[in-house]
Amino acid sequence: MNKITKLIQLLFLAAVFTNNVTAQTPVSHPNLKWEKEEAHSDEFETLDTQKWENDPNDWGVWSWEPSLAYVENNELKIKMIQETHRRNTNYGQNEELYYKSGIIRNNQTITYGYFEAKIKGADRFPGVSPAFWLYSINQPDPTEDGQAKYSEIDVVELTQKEWDFDKNEWEGPEAIDMNLHAVARENGQLVQIRPHGKPEIAQNKWYADFDPREDYHTYGVLSRADSIFWYVDGIERGRKENLYWHLPMHITVSMGLRNPFVKYVDGVRYPVADSTTTEGFPTEMACQYVRVWKAVPQIQATESDYENVEFGKNKGLTFNSYFDAGSGFRSTSEMEVDLVEKNASGETVKVAATSQAVIKGKAAGQTSVFFNLQGVALSSDLEAGHYYEINARFTSSKENETVELTPIKNILVVDEVTSLGKGLGSNIEIYPNPALESIKIKGLQKTTPVTILNIAGEVMMEKNIDPKETIDVSKWVNGVYLAKVSHNGVVVTKRFVKL
């Protein structure tokens, strides 16, 4: 093989790799439209110190050491060591400290988007906390109530070993913390917003069925203008209203010191000299990647639920969709949804029916509209080549952009749908509803394809279900789910609630 041939092959492989990286999507929302933020993302072939700061100013009761953040075998490693040293702290000058750790912090800031990392926790427990998080730096004092001076989103903090007041015992390594912190102006004063002080605003905790020290898992957060959502391995594990987290923040990967090496006295954190040990140190966490995306303004719907599907004039047509105004933006209009008659050339003949989804001022979410088909002509009565399609649109605050649904064609309007339950039993029902631990699907007459989605459109389960089969939902986050039961091209959709 000559050098030119080798060069061509290398260039081809590089192009394939580049396309694969560009095509990456979040584990939890693969079907939405995203734009990759390369300036905030890294596959960690090397430690790019033009992108990442690894020697920021020290804080807390340990010190940052640049050499303890490094790349090895295409992984970011953050190490903590026991090393007694002295430096100035917030509680005194030339104080003795006992541990050093690594950190990387992105040099650029970002506020909204989807943030994901694949991490394996450190083996030392208790005592250290691997973390993937975002925080603001040096923001001005707010001038109005409700504004923040400091914003911090903890995508994940592992193995913190906090006290479980409900069980009256210490937590194990399976406790996953996904919290918020802020300093905000309320009643003219700056106040602390912390997880334990305001849990309804700032605290999320999830108990995993795995040990995060033993293997890699993906941890993600979706920060929108209205809400913040947390994900572990693509499944939602927490959500909060976005009240104070609108500042530009730096993406950070680090490992901090925790109990028993830290204590609090009157709200000030101090090292615990008597607990200092080399046992379990050095210890390190591993991070395979950090990836960041921004959502593109969009309307998404499941085409197969409508295209070439019959809808009876006796029951009408319910159209379900998901909209996103784009990361950091909101809809400035309601969503207009039309059932349109088109001719063979794809030109509009007339709007046969119209409806509206109330989304003005919202950032993203599920929508549902209903078309009364009583005054709509049957598809069989249309002129040759004519057909119905569904159109939808709204306006995003992102540059006043008009956002449109890719038209869904060949909607079939009939007098009465008689085949909807054929082969599926006379009635498809989910029970119990609401559900706590498990559900069954009543009305199945044979093994049938079933897909269950959460309210954000994420697939929670997709498999063939036997008529007597029990579906375990005990580990799913509480909320509304959609079960889609398919048979002979007909889809029956049922909602149920997980408590």
UniProtKB/TrEMBL annotation:
Residues 20-298 form the GH16 domain. SUPFAM superfamilies: Concanavalin A-like lectins/glucanases. Coiled coil: none annotated. Residues 1-23 form the signal peptide. GO terms for molecular function: hydrolase activity, hydrolyzing O-glycosyl compounds. Keywords: Hydrolase, Signal. GO terms for biological process: carbohydrate metabolic process. PANTHER family: GLYCOSIDE HYDROLASE FAMILY 16 PROTEIN (PTHR10963:SF55), GLYCOSYL HYDROLASE-RELATED (PTHR10963). Belongs to the glycosyl hydrolase 16 family. This is Family 16 glycosylhydrolase. The lineage of its organism: Bacteria, Pseudomonadati, Bacteroidota, Cytophagia, Cytophagales.
